[in-house]
Amino acid sequence: MAAMMNMTNLLNGKDSRWLQLEVCREYQRNKCSRPDTECKFAHPPANVEVQNGRVTACYDSIKVRSNVTTDCM
Q1: Which of 21, 27, 50, 51 could cross-link 32 (Cys pair, CB 3.0–4.6 Å)?
Q2: Which residues form the C3H1-type zinc fingers (predicted)?
Q3: Would you say residue 7 has pLDDT above 60?
Q4: Who contacts 24 (Cβ-Cβ below 8 Å, separation ≥6)?
Q5: Cβ distance 19 to 50 under 8 Å?
Q6: What per-residue confidence (pLDDT) applies to 18?
Q7: 3-state DSSP: the chain helix, strand, coil percent, rounded to 5?
Q8: For the segment 16-60, what is each residue's pLDDT rounded down to a tens digit?
Q9: How many CB atoms lie within 10 A of CB 5?
Q10: How far apart, in whole angstroms, are the C-alpha atoms of residue 25 and residue 33?
Q11: Residue 65: what are its φ and ψ, rounded to 5°?
């Protein structure tokens, strides 16, 4: 029954845990030398809220990051 609830939440878009990315600690200290496209961690802009070292990403931005075609601009 619990598995069914989790699947329902995922399909309804209510469970965003899988969209959370860890923020680059070096980037937070302005020390990351890698561009955001090459770093495996998130480089969020200053206006994005970081909670516990993680950010919730837009699904389309994750597709772009993994070189999948998307409609997000």
Answers
A1: 27
A2: 18-46
A3: no
A4: 32, 39, 41, 42, 43
A5: no
A6: 79
A7: 35, 10, 55
A8: 777 888 999 999 999 999 998 899 999 998 888 899 999 987 777
A9: 10
A10: 12
A11: -60, -30
